[in-house]
Amino acid sequence: MKTEKEKFLDGEPYYIMDPELAADETRARRLCKQINELDDLQTQEKDDLVRKLFGSVGKSPYVQPNFRCDFGYNIHVGDDFLCNYDCVILDIAPVTIGDHCFMGPKAQIYSADHPLDPTLRGNFIGIGHPVTIGDNVWLGASSVVLPGVTLGNNVVVGANSTVTKSFGDDVILAGSPARVIGKKPAAGCEADQILREHLFVED
């Protein structure tokens, strides 16, 4: 019979109060606390701790306080990952982020989910759905990416947006739920103007 941690790692429903998983969460909280307490001059110490917390890390990660996550070892980031203030990644399932990605202040990525059945939910049964984010993605301030979402390369998500479904490459998203408001956010495009014009405008 599988342990609850084995179920968890295999992406199956699991008991969220399992002591072994609780110990893993405590470890992650302690590492987050250490990372968040370092100043900007302690770059090597912070780099070492981020690599200890995350499952895999590319070159030059930059994580600002107050970062929070569930386990850490389910987070995989590429080169030049920039995580601004007060970001949250709930890594119940794998969260994979490509190269040159930015998380704006208070941006959040959730791979954690709960059953709709109130009996299962009341018995502390949880499940995760992986989140995958491509290269050159910018999640604007206070944006939220929900469980099971995949974002392609060169995607911009406007501030305060909620991404509830997957999108491909080269799109600008905004709104709650997020929708495509522009395309091809490449060098020289007018993405900032598009975001200003559409972010808080209803159809």
From TrEMBL:
Q: Which residues form a coiled coil?
A: none
What are the record's GO terms for cellular component? cytosol
An example molecular function term from Gene Ontology annotations: O-acyltransferase activity
Arranged from A to Z, the UniProt key words for this protein are: Acyltransferase, Transferase
Report the residue ranges that make up the Maltose/galactoside acetyltransferase domain in this protein. Answer: 5-59
Q: Mind telling me which Pfam families this protein's record contains?
A: Hexapep_2, Mac
InterPro entries per record: Hexapep, Hexapeptide_acetyltransf, Mac_dom, Trimer_LpxA-like_sf
Which SUPFAM superfamilies does the UniProt record give? Trimeric LpxA-like enzymes
User: So which domain of life are we looking at?
Assistant: Bacteria
Keyword Acyltransferase applies:
yes
Matching entries from PANTHER family are given as: ACETYLTRANSFERASE C18B11.09C-RELATED, SIALIC ACID SYNTHASE-RELATED
Q: Which family does it belong to?
A: Belongs to the transferase hexapeptide repeat family.
For this entry, the protein name equals Sugar O-acetyltransferase
Top-down, what is the taxonomic lineage of the species of origin? Bacteria, Bacillati, Bacillota, Bacilli, Lactobacillales
